[in-house]
Amino acid sequence: MASGWRGRDVISILDFTRGELEELFLEADKVKMALRRGGLQRRPLEGKLVALAFFEPSTRTRMSFEAAAKRLGAGTIGFTGPEGTSVEKGENLADTIRMLDAYADLIVIRHRYEGSALYAAEIAEAPVVNGGDGRQHHPTQAMIDLYTVREAHGRVEGLDYAVVGDLRYGRAAASFMLALTIFRPRRLYLVYPPQLAPRREVVSALERAGVRFERAELEEVIGEVDVLYVTRIQRERFPDPEEYERVRGSYRVTASMLEGARDSLVVLHPLPRVDEIDHSVDSTRHAWYFRQARNGVPVRMALLKLILGG
Amino acid sequence: MGGDEGLVVRKIRHGTVIDHIPAGRALRVLRLLGATLGGGRRIAIVINAESRKLGRKDIVKIEGLEPRVEDLDRIALVAPTATVNIVRDYRVVVKRKVEPPAEVRGILRCANPTCITRKPGEPVTPRFRLVSRDPLEYQCVYCGSILGEREIVEQLGGPAPL
Fold first, then answer.
1. Contact at CB, B119 and A93, closer than 8 angstroms
2. Do A167 and A121 have their domain in common?
3. Is there a cis peptide before residue B113, judged by omega within 30 degrees of 0?
């Protein structure tokens, strides 16, 4: 088992088959169980070093990778933001990656340019894990999201999904939609303002995979789905602030809206949220986003373990 | 091919005839063949010839050239309907439609300004994968953006259609 994972790059969720992702989830189950019992018996990645190259600011993703690496016994090196690094002196990405490749056994990269992770993987001999490349991919977030759906429903396929918010520039939303091409949803509703429609390549991927999807309004889908995946709509995407104020109310989930929801409904959000999920939702049985966030560490531990072979 | 379009261009003895080029794109085809043409060759270009299939078409005849398959397939980027005839001793010995290459390295530039291939100072060659033949669409391997036929033809420039 897991032979296909050893030394592997993680660039896009589409690089993985359903079988491989299920293998990852089983590993995450084991890790999670061990963590619940107070930690892993042994330190499978003792002596390994993970580089965290966060050219863009990040708290959650960087810290959960760091926690994951350390809990497995690996050390971490790295930086957040280009300040104080050689990048600020004008070093290109290729040279920075070569340097990290010489120091570490695995590189996690976040960078604002789309394709930066693939480019880094072509340069580095060490496996490269994409921690977010511009608006394009955030594959480990998608792994965590799918894992959480599986935990809530016992399966990922055959469910009714809605993805809400910024489907154009949001990489978590894009990766989640792409992930659904691997696990056949029964139905997929896309809820977005016209400016934030999913990108052409994401729509073609859904079409090619034969996913049944359609655009819908939030109010009308809440009672029709098992998973409501909510993302943030950023103010910066709207040139006109009034337009933003007008739009954002239609993409806001409140507890009272969930009254007509299926019992099985789980609300997910990659976090951080602003007010697209009202705090009144937090105390409902549908709120799964904090559990989703907690799955960040065990899923990333499972991933590092499979890739570095602990 | 050739012959009946009224504007007389002599048959060539040895060389290549590229026929069924969408009208106005002959110069773009030549530009795309660029370096493979070499200097001093005799080239005939017919623009806006009549065509039963296309209405209007362009034709390019290049004497003494037998291009490699990969150079020919590049033509498909600006002229997906083109056919290539290799002529020896006035006889067509090979005739085939161009095939859009499965992957294109260099040549095209990604349209997305925040694609890593557009970042200054990075030694990275743009790469595109064919995702659709009709309409012609290529996808950037790095950022996933899709380039359609119009954008491709515009990029591969050359003089505007006549």
1. yes
2. no
3. no
